[in-house]
Specification:
Layout (H helix, E strand, L loop, with lengths): L2 E10 L2 E11 L4 E5 L6 H8 L7 E6 L2 E2 L4 H5 L2 E4 L11 H12 L4 H11 L12 H13 L5 E5 L7 H16 L3 E6 L2 H7 L2 E6 L2 E7 H5 L2 E7 L11 E7 L2 E6 L3 H8 L4 E8 L3 H7 L5
Parallel strand pairs: 3-8, 3-9, 6-7, 7-8
Antiparallel strand pairs: 1-2, 1-4, 4-5, 9-10, 11-13, 11-14, 12-13
Length: 289
Amino acid sequence: MLLRTEQLTKDYNGFRALDRLDLEIGAGEIFGLLGPNGSGKSTALRLLLGFLRPSAGRAFIAGHDCWTHSIEARRQVAYLPGELRLYENMTARQLVGFLSQLRGNSKPAAVDQLAKTFDIDVARPIAHLSSGMKRKVALMQVLLPQTPLLILDEPTNTLDPSMRDELLDQLVAAKKRGQAVLFSSHVLAEVERVCDRVGILQRGRLVHVQNMAELREVKRVRVHFAQEVAAPNLDGVREVTAHDHELVFEYTGPLEELFRWLSTRLVRDVKIEPLGLAKIYRRFHGMDE
């Protein structure tokens, strides 16, 4: 495993911010951490980066202990913090070049290509850029080194919708190159789109890990009929609710069987969509959190 934690714990004056986290992430995997503010997402990421000393437990990146051998561990990582602090007296090109030289992997051609993709004027001083543009500059520095592991804390904050889509595409491309990605988010839709697995944190504890391939096989079906209809007697149908000529249920199975059943009824309207994470998330957190 590229990343592994063992009972990783962080306490602050009697308050437990992270509680015995056990987690493994392999190369070529995108893992999303979900949870409201205060659930432990940022604490977990900072422990992995050696910015905080664990109260108990251990974490490893590429076999290196994240606290006792933090420099070796961080060499495997490119990190995007939730709150940016950039050298604003530099231009974007100067900053990216400076940080790339520290890593020993300056790639001017790659800088220009990514700047074009992100629509950034790298000749402008960072102080003159908007918050969204500053985040793009930071994302460039995270993506350029192509480290084994990317750690991103709320990476789509301040980005416009088209740029969010581009970033998610970049994370998928990183996965295809064999890189691992760990990122925290509040946005269920972006997590659903790119993640292989998702972990839900609640008050510092990892309360659920969801395999997204399994979840994507489950469909939510809503059908409005011309008359009252009994629930389908099909394998894979569960959690049926009926109201006023309408059936709503979850379905896992061949769509051909579902369509065959529907073709024998008088259907006024039908909607079939992936189940999504919302229901699972609501099990642990209200959607208003």
